[in-house]
Each structure stands twice: as structure tokens, then as C-alpha cells.
Task: inverse folding
DNA sequence: TAAATTCTGAGGTACGCACCTCAAATGCGA
DNA sequence: TCGCATTTGAGGTGCGTACCTCAGAATTTA
């Protein structure tokens, strides 16, 4: 039997150097079987949760796993599966620039992941028809797909479809927006309340002692994200900066005309506007409209998500900071979580926390 | 022969949904051999760069690779290697809190990587004895180690040791600090000039219209990192904020006593200090000293690297922002780069760029 | 106690590639 | 054209696991 911890010291002659060593041999299922006093077949049954093993035997095997420090070799396991992992990202059909970035990262990941037998896919859901979306999700079978990251509104239909998918053995994880943490505390994305707080703090710090009011502009206040960001934003401003006033949230509904209208109105109604907060994921429209109205000039402006629009505006000094979440990290984290679920492994929470990044022109 | 692109459509009945499909079969070395009209042995020779193949044959195989879109199955390749990947991080013996964080992440990675047949190791180098360090590195053989990430001063000895390691077939990558980009443009770490600029911009923005001078404190000005950060910092301040003056860099040499001395002197010599920039990786000492001297109170202060010290100071409001690079990303990126080198693959530059993060209390 | 049921073992194949050996074919120069 | 070195082919083994079958052992039930 090969023990888990025989090591060779890489630099045995250099004792004074602190170094830990490389493991040479790791116990295999064969070692496990011998240690547990059962056959390979039984070990396989236990490891893969197949039926037909007495409780006592299961415990004997688990005991041996513990004793040997056995870890399944995922490389061999993946190869033996005869098929790679197939993950999908269910995203809304209507998208913004940030969504485009995410999709590009998924494509990149898919290309790179081939060699590791991991594939990533995008499914576009009709965001205005929860029934249809739910039907699409309900049609997926474990044959086609191992796991799915979902960005979809929290309707009862979707919720139900998710539950049924999980029952069929498809792993799920809520992704970036529009979803409760659901079915086990996993969630891929930033804490939007903290993101709002960050924006608020930064806006106030950049303003310094200047007094006045702040315009808050977003696509729609209906979304959970907007709500949370607004909460975090207001909390910081109200608690710490009484000389600043936050105006009611304005909505663009994704329409440049309307955006221009509401922004112009707000600027006319309040002659003391010193800051703007573009709260939604689609900052392109607010930025363009603000450019036309010359609204950010002399005011501090903060937007969300790095996209070509925000990047350009940041470089030109039209806006002052961008609160961001890295789409590459989002994608890779989702895949890691889904894969860990497939393999019944835990994930390192610290590694999977998506950072709320602050971008200014200098650290783009 | 199996083509690379036969697909099954996951949602064939849902045409209106945009979706790309899952690849079912990928060409194997066997397919490659058939397509190139050579044997498996020859394919193997070409793929693994073994000698004894006519140029014309090599081209035929490469041609077939191109035509089929062949990608080596890294899962199978890793399994067949009969041994996992062994990577090491050569780090200075004397460390700061940030180095501790990095080491912790290496440990985490090592634990998690076991299942993927990747091991990570730490080798501590004596930073005051380049000869000894070089000797340590020179002793490493490809049997023991596949690649190494190196944080060590750029002495001729080290440089030489690195070259010889590369000749022996050990992959290397400069890591975080003290190293030129060396041998191919890879470097794991942030752009320190940009980091300095970021710090400068942020400091100035937080200060607003306030006039005065800024104290810059670091461990030693000898290091390349300090130099670059200072350059970036000064560039931003001088170009954009003429009402601010940057004072000459003060050095702590890692000594709290000395730190307190130089800081107190500087504060006494200049009664207009409005900001502090703790430029080194070890902000603990400056923070503690500043606390004793009550130096940051009423002044804007920026430090580098998230550590228990900086995190605590940020939460307490003793400092205003931290410029950070994520140690987890550093470690994983180094491993990805080393592994890609081992497998003769390219890496996605966009994925490997380490972000210069800005942390404030709200986005910790 | 016999029969039915549940559990277990032994053995196999497969995944895609790395690495090995040895014989045969090919190309080359003289 | 021969002899030699170089190049190629055929075949093998092994990595650690998944997944399969079927016979026989152990246990439970009637």
C-alpha cells in the first residue's frame, strides 16, 4: 500500500532553506480497497454513491479514505468519464455591453477549456417571457449538460424549473444578477449593496467639502441589483455626508431619448447637482446622453462595469471612477463552482468571492 | 476519422434561442496519424518534440493538426505523464505580511491542486546572499521540478542560475517583485508604475483643492518596485496637481525605530504635510508608527497591499485606500503560465494581467 | 431449512496520451 | 550498387478511474 505522505525533499542538501516537499506517491483506489479490506468494485460503489452497499461497508471505506488521506484523482476521473464537463450560461436575450463582455469571456473559456475537457455554452433566454424561459430550462437533460449558471429574473416559473433541473441532477448556480442565492448559498457575483456603498463613498470623497445633490440614474429600479446598490449608496451618503443630497432614482428604460429627457429635467429642477451615479450595468446610454448635455463636466460621476463606453469615458475624464466586477473571474468562478458540485467537492469560498473593483484612468 | 466539429444542439427545438453547441467528438492522436498518413509513433515524436523526424514529416503532421483542429487532450496527457506538475515559488527568506499572504495562497493552491495533479512548493532564498541563492537554484533538476516562479533580486548570479535552469528544461517566470521581465515577456505581478500613478491620482483626488506636501515612506529605495512606484506617483502629481509637493522618499529599512525617527523629523520639518504615501509592501511598520505619532489623522494616507495591518487601518479610518494585487490571482496566474510553458501552450494575456486594485473600507 | 434477496468480489474494457523497444523501410554518400 | 545512418512503423505497457457483467457469498425472509 502506498501511503499518502512519503516525500522527497527537493533540496535535501540545503537544510537551512525552509522548504516543504513534493509528494511522490498518492494512494489510489487500489490502495483504498486493500486498506478497507474490500474489492475495487465496492470502493467504486462507495466513491460514486452507487446503491447496494451495506452501511457498515460504506463506513469501512470512508474510514480508510480518512486514514489514507485518499483523494480521488480528478484527472483520471475526468478521463474515465468518457466525456468532458458541459456547462452552460443562461443569459437574457436582451443585453448590454457588459453582457457582451461576459459572453466573450465564456467563448474564451470554452476555447481554452477544450484541452481540459470542459466546455462552456451560452443559452439566451427571453427575459420578457418567463414561461418560455422555464420551458427551455426544463428541456435540458443531464445527458446534454452537467451544470448551468443562471442569470434570470426570480419568477415562480424559473424557480420551479431550477428545482426540477436540480432534481434531474443538473447543477445550478445563480450568476451575476437577478437571482437569489438559491439552493446552497452559492452565488457568482459581487455584493451589490457593498458596490453601492463603494460608489457612494468614492463619490463623496472625490467631492470633498462641496455641497449639493446627486443624480442617480439607472435602467430600471425593478431589478434587485439596482435596489441593493441604491440601498448601499444611500446608507453611506446619509450616514456620513449630510451636506450631500441623493435625488430619487431616474430610469432610462434603455431608451436614449427618455434618458436625455429625464436627465435634462433633473438638471433643470436642481441647480445644485454636484455628482452623478450611473447605477445600472448599461452605462453607455447615460454616458452618451451626459455627453450631449455636457452633464458630467465639473461634476463627479461614477458608473458601473468596465465596458468600451465606460473605459473611453474614464480615459477622457468624462467620468471619474467605475465600479467593476471582472467578467473573466465571473465566468471562471461559475465553472469552478459547477464543476466542484459535479465532483462533490467543496470550493474555497475565499477564492470564489468576486471582488468589487474600483477603476480609475490610472489602473485600467 | 472523427472530425472536430460534429455537434449536437442542446436545444434543437428552440431555434429562436441563440445558442452555440457542444462538441461531441474531438480528434485524437489516432485521427491525427491517419490524417497525416503517418504512424502513432511519429505523431508522438512530433507532438513531444522528439528527435529523429524529417522536416517534411513534421510539416505533414503539423498540417494535419491544423486541418483537423487537433488539440492535445491535456487531461489524458497529464495522466499519462505518470507524475503531476511540480512547481515551486522561490521567495525571499525575510518576509513581510504580504509575503505571508502569498505563501498562504500557495499552500491553499497546493492542497486544492493535488486532485488535479499539480503541486506547489515554496523555496526560501537568502536575500542577502545571491551566491547561495544561485547555488540553490542551480541544484534543482527537471526530475524534481517542472517550473519555478521567482522573486529574487536581479544579480548576475541569479540571472545566470535562471538561464542554466531554463537550459535544463525548467520553466521560470518572474514573480511579483525584484525581477526583470526575463526570457519571454512573462511577468506575474502588477505594473508598479501604474500602481504608483493610481496611488498618486487617488491621493490627489481625496485631497481635493487642499495645498501642501506629501510624505513618501518605503522600506528601501533600492528596489525596482519602489523606484517604479515613485516614478508613477510623481508623474501624476507633478503633471496634474501643481499645488501638491512630493517630499523625498523616506526609508524605514524595516526598522520601527528608524521609521518613527524619519517620520517625526519629516513632520517637524514640514508643517504643511497633507498626505502620506506608504509605498512599500510592508505597510505594517509605517502604519504602527503613524499611529503612535498620530500622523494620518486629518491627512490622506494611501498604502500598498492588503494585509491584516492595512485592512485594520482601513476599517478604522487611519488610512484612506490601499493599492492591492490579489495574492490568490498571483499564485494561480504563475501556475497557469508555468503549466502552459510546460505544455507548449500560449496563455491568454488578458487573463493573466494582474489587476491593480483599489481598496477602501467599503469594498474590502 | 430452503428460498429469496441483498451484498460483494473478480475480472474485464475504456479513456487519450506518454514512453518504450525493435524491426523494417528509406535516404544518403561513395 | 552497396553499406550505412537516419527515419519510420507496429506494437506494446501503463497512468487512475468509471462503468460493466456475472458468479458466488452473505444475509434476510418465509
Result:
Amino acid at each position: 500500500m502506498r501511503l499518502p505522505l512519503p516525500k522527497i525533499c527537493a533540496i535535501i542538501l540545503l537544510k537551512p532553506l525552509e522548504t516543504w516537499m513534493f509528494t511522490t506517491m498518492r494512494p489510489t483506489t487500489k490502495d483504498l480497497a486493500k486498506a478497507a479490506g474490500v474489492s475495487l468494485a465496492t470502493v467504486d460503489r462507495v466513491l460514486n454513491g452507487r446503491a447496494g452497499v451495506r452501511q457498515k461497508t460504506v463506513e469501512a471505506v470512508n474510514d480508510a479514505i480518512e486514514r489514507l488521506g485518499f483523494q480521488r484523482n480528478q484527472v483520471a476521473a475526468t478521463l474515465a468519464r468518457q466525456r468532458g464537463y458541459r456547462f452552460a450560461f443562461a443569459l437574457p436575450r436582451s443585453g448590454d455591453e457588459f453582457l457582451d463582455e461576459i459572453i466573450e469571456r465564456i467563448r474564451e473559456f470554452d476555447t481554452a477549456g477544450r484541452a481540459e475537457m470542459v466546455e462552456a455554452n451560452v443559452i439566451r433566454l427571453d427575459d420578457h417571457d418567463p414561461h418560455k424561459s422555464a420551458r427551455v430550462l426544463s428541456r435540458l437533460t443531464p445527458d446534454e449538460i452537467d451544470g448551468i449558471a443562471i442569470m434570470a429574473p426570480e419568477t415562480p416559473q424559473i424557480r420551479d424549473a431550477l428545482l426540477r433541473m436540480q432534481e434531474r441532477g443538473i447543477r445550478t448556480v445563480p450568476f451575476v444578477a437577478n437571482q437569489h442565492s438559491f439552493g446552497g448559498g452559492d452565488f457568482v457575483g459581487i455584493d451589490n449593496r457593498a458596490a453601492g456603498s463603494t460608489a457612494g463613498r468614492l463619490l463623496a470623497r472625490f467631492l470633498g467639502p462641496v455641497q449639493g445633490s446627486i443624480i442617480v440614474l439607472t435602467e430600471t429600479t425593478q431589478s434587485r441589483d439596482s435596489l441593493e446598490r441604491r440601498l448601499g449608496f444611500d446608507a453611506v451618503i446619509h450616514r456620513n455626508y449630510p451636506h450631500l443630497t441623493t435625488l430619487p432614482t431616474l430610469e432610462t428604460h434603455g431608451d436614449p431619448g427618455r434618458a436625455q429627457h429625464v436627465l435634462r429635467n433633473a438638471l433643470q429642477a436642481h441647480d445644485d447637482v454636484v455628482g452623478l451615479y450611473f447605477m445600472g450595468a448599461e452605462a453607455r446610454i447615460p454616458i452618451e446622453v451626459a455627453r450631449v448635455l455636457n452633464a458630467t463636466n465639473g461634476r463627479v460621476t461614477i458608473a458601473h462595469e468596465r465596458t468600451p463606453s465606460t473605459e473611453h469615458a474614464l480615459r477622457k475624464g468624462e467620468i471619474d471612477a467605475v465600479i467593476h466586477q471582472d467578467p473573466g473571474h465571473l465566468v471562471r468562478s461559475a465553472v469552478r463552482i459547477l464543476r466542484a458540485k459535479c465532483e462533490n467537492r467543496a470550493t474555497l469560498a475565499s477564492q470564489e468571492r468576486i471582488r468589487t473593483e474600483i477603476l480609475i484612468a490610472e489602473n485600467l
Notes: The first helix of chain B runs from residue 29 to 36. Chain B touches chain A through 71 residues (CB under 8 Å). Residues 84-189+328-354 of chain B form a domain with the Rossmann fold fold (CATH 3.40.50.2300).
